[in-house]
Amino acid sequence: MESDEEEYLMLSGIQHFQFCKRQWALIHIEQQWEENVRTVEGQFLHQKADTPFIREKRGNKLIVRAMPIKSRELRITGICDVVEFMKDASGVEINGLEGKYMAYPVEYKRGKPKVNDIDVLQLTAQAMCLEEMLLCRIDLGYLFYNEIKHRIEVPITEIEKSKVKQIVTEMYDFYLRRHTPKVKTGTYCTNCSLQNICLPKLMNKQSVKSYIDGKIRE
Fold first, then answer.
1. Which of 55, 130, 150, 160 could form a disulfide with 124 if both were Cys (CB 3.0 to 4.6 A apart)?
2. Which residues pair with 19 in a beta bridge?
3. What span, in angstroms and rounded, lies between the C-alpha atoms of 98 and 56?
4. Per-residue b/e over 26-39, b at no fewer than 16 CB within 10 Å?
5. Residue closest to 11 by CA, chosen among 119, 104, 117
6. Which tens digits make up the pLDDT trace of 197-214?
7. Low-confidence stretches of the chain (pLDDT beneath 50)
8. Which of 133, 34, 137 shows the shortest CA–CA distance to 91?
9. Do 208 and 202 form a contact (C-beta atoms < 8 A)?
10. How far is Cα 179 from Cα 199, in angstroms, rounded to an integer?
């Protein structure tokens, strides 16, 4: 199904969706947002990376910051924090530069490496957009974690690409139905910037009346 690019979903929503489908829906369907310490720290970390259209040449490497990306196949759009282009005879031509280059997306994160694949999936989606835009193949990307001041090499695999396609399909299912789901609550809710909007306690088995009565007793 084709649609105008204004209807494309945000690539950054993949991470929200994997963290909590309800959080994603509140942000990307209901357009609700609140700041907390974590979101502010994340914005500060991205300030340098997100200086738009800055191209920095270092020998055989071209560094492009805040590069807009999109995929017509996935119908998603977003921004790469950094894309590093390394001179390589097996790469692709870059407008205004001599020779050919291989592209490597670099995503900046505020914390430390996660036990799940949320960050990897976001990076994989960026690579998929770049592959479609540049007509190339991308086998590697990097995740830079501010807490450890180190970046990690991440293979871009067909397994992760398949997961990204499945996730985006599910995101569009919710989006087209304008459906904000209920989810199982947990301790992670206390770290969510939307807890005052989401009201996770209301999703527990207690009724709305008992919740209100409890608040009155408090």
1. 160
2. none
3. 15
4. bbbbeeeeeeeeee
5. 119
6. 665 555 555 444 554 555
7. 1-3, 35-46, 206-208, 211
8. 137
9. yes
10. 17
**Residue 135: which region, alpha, beta or left (left: phi > 0; alpha: psi -120 to 50)?**
left
| Type of residue found at 58 | R
Provide the pairing of β-strand 9-10 with 55-58: unpaired
Ordered DSSP codes for 82-140: EEEEEEEEEEEE-TTSSSEEEEEEEEEESS---SSSHHHHHHHHHHHHHHHHHT----E
Number of C-beta neighbours around residue 100 at 10 A: 16
As given in the structure block, the two tokens for residue 81 are 């924090």
Smallest CA-to-CA distance from 101 within 62, 127, 155 is with 62
How are beta strands 76-93 and 9-10 bridged, if at all? Answer: parallel
Task: Please give the Cα distance from 130 to 144 (Å, whole number).
Answer: 19
How do residues 59-88 score in pLDDT, each as one tens digit? 899 999 999 999 999 999 999 999 999 999
Neighbouring residues of 193: CB distance < 8 A, sequence distance ≥ 6: 33, 34, 35, 36, 38, 39
With H, G, I as helix, E, B as strand and everything else as coil, classify residue 153. strand
- Sequence-ordered alpha helix ranges (H) in the chain: 13-19, 21-28, 37-49, 118-134, 158-177, 195-198, 208-217
Do you know the residue count of the chain?
218
